[in-house]
Amino acid sequence: MFEILLRDRIIAQPGFNRWKVPPASIAIHLCIGSVYAWSIYNPPLTRLFGVVTPASGDWSLQDVTWIFSVAIVFLGLAAALAGHWLDKVGPRLVGTVAAALWGGGYLVGSVGIFTHQLWLLYLGYGVLGGCGLGLGYVSPVSTLIKWFPDRRGMATGMAIMGFGGGAMIGAPLKRYFIQLFYEAPDYLGTVDQVNLITQAGRRFVERAGEQLEVVVVGANEVTNMLVPGPEGVYVVGTGSAGVAQTFIVLGLLYFVVMVIAAFSYRVPADDWLPEGWSPPEEDSSAKKMMTTHNVDIEEAMKTPQFYRLWIVLCMNVSAGIGVLGVASTMMREIFGTTLPTIVDGAFAAAYVSMISVFNMVGRFIWASSSDYIGRKNTYWIFFALGILLYCSVPLAADRVSANPAVVWLILFYAATMIIFTMYGGGFATIPAYLADVFGTKYVGGIHGRLLTAWSTAGVVGPLAITSLRENAVVRAIEDLVSRVEPAAFQARFGAGIDQLDQLVAAQTVTIASLMEIAPPGTVDPTSSLYNNTMYLMAVLLLIGLIANASMKPVDKKHHMQE
């Protein structure tokens, strides 16, 4: 039974229609591409106890954002190891193993959420799921390049298009199931209806002789609730954020779809060529830089071109992946306080879905365009235009804070959508770039090795954005506290300013809660939390631009003897 999964059993018969292959690859990539909608999980995962707002025992945003990073790290590592294995056993076996790891990772993660064991969530979604991502990602790439040697860019665009579109389907699915399984915690009334006690930064109320830990939702925090509800006091540990149940449902769903798709794979015979097509002659010009020779996987690792392309991919991915991991949160923090009637939970979820749409469309359009303008020129556009767009985001954030006008939201939305077309386009163009530089014979294995750049970017991007954001939050809280009257602070939080560290650690004091007692005219600093991050992303793109500019054809000494 195992043999039906191997490459020899899925070689297509003469006359097979090659257009039957892309739907299978797109289906698998739509499933694993839902990783790009990870930010939908951030709010419920940081409110498992508090539900309506984070409680003292809840995980922080930085804790759960790193799960996404771990998944991307293991994606790259698994892809690097699986590339050569894929060439031997074929895409059906690799795709089936990917289904088991991705679906199973979700189920292990759900156990971690139910038991509040963060390490299980890292193991399930991060390690196992990440390995499933890597195997599922590489399985169609070399297959479609071999089916479409006459349209390499379009082939890789089709192979990877679904990955960019995964969040388009995944975001609304995740939001739907989270709200379906959501249960509001016990509501005790407004602040003036209960007697609040503050101990070690945490809030309590006394009921029937025992103290119950509670969270307080103020007027500024209502818009950030998972499901709208009244402001006031809620009991910690009651209700459900709905995310554990969502993990179970989606894990089973993704497993079934991916297995069906994996069994739909076919590979061409070794001597197959499209009817009426013959391989082009070598072109070493800057525009095409296309070789007719092949370079072995191990030999490719000895060339400077491999490492330049590694830097190109790493910088392009680092600049986008950090934003992807917190996209929903970032949208709500930058515009949720200034334009609350427009930017709510549903708007943020729709924003994540639109990122997926543009990510997916960009993969196909940019990769297909690179067949005509060349891969090197395509990356020139990615880096040069990307630098300008990243620098425009802080401008929109600063202006909307001073003047809450919709035009700044439109600017931000447009800039980020263009950025994500190029982010996705970079992924889809890089396999064709590799095929042009190193030949098509071992492009699957070389591509797998190059995806270690994605692993690195999966750490660099989220680390940069979360670290810089946390530093910005600390500075903003300290600045707001210096403006607030001590008596107002004591009345709002039941403790003095001297206990600020404990109150912040227990998530009792936040920027939103401080703005409720800040002097009139105080500008909410939430919109500017990501400014430094955007400038750093622009610097990363500049490094990528320099690496791309230095690309040249591979020296003949590295070519295989045919």
Give me the Rg, rounded: 25 Å
| Helix/strand class | mainly alpha
Taking pLDDT < 50 over at least 5 consecutive residues as the criterion, the unreliable ranges are: none
Task: Please report which band the strand proportion falls in: under 5%, 5-15%, 15-25%, 25-35%, 35-45% or over 45%.
Answer: under 5%
Order of strands in the sheet with the most strands? 1-5-4-3-2
Tell me the CATH architecture: Up-down Bundle
Q: How does the major sheet shape up?
A: 5 strands, antiparallel
Q: Work out the count of structural domains.
A: 1
Can you give a write-up of this model?
The chain has 20 helices and 5 strands. It is mainly alpha-helical. The chain has a 5-stranded antiparallel β-sheet with strand order 1-5-4-3-2, with no helix packed on it. The radius of gyration is 25 Å and the shape is elongated.
Descriptors:
562 residues; mainly alpha; Growth Hormone, Chain: A; five-stranded antiparallel beta sheet; 5 strands; elongated
Ordered list of secondary-structure elements with their pairings:
Layout: H1 22-32, H2 42-45, H3 61-89, H4 91-115, H5 118-138, H6 141-147, H7 152-181, E1 187-189, E2 197-199, E3 202-207, E4 210-217, E5 232-235, H8 243-262, H9 297-300, H10 304-325, H11 327-335, H12 345-373, H13 375-402, H14 406-438, H15 443-450, H16 452-483, H17 486-493, H18 500-505, H19 511-515, H20 531-549
Antiparallel strand pairs: 1-5, 2-3, 3-4, 4-5
